[in-house]
Specification:
The protein is of the alpha+beta class. It is about 25% helix and about 10% strand. α1 links the parallel β1 and β2. It is globular.
Length: about 100
Amino acid sequence: SKLSDSRSFEYSHEMSCEIEPFKQAYIGRNFPGVPLFPDITKLTASPEVVDVYGRPQTIPDGNLFVAGTSCKDFSMLKTRDRLDIEDKGTSGETFLAAVEFL
């Protein structure tokens, strides 16, 4: 894709990773043919990872990595049971897996 004015930024969407099935469906519909992996924590287990459709896939090369977490484990609005990255939780595991993948 490319911006329409002089601020050009070209990119190629090489893969996605999403654990929530309804979000996987959205990504699958909007980015057909792009490998879609179910769990970022499994990306470093081996060079070949099973995608959300049950097919073994090789992780593609890339030079830009975009990741996000829900951050609900880290929220300051949680007055108790708040987790730090070291405590893991879903958000911490996602963050640490992204760092390990890089």
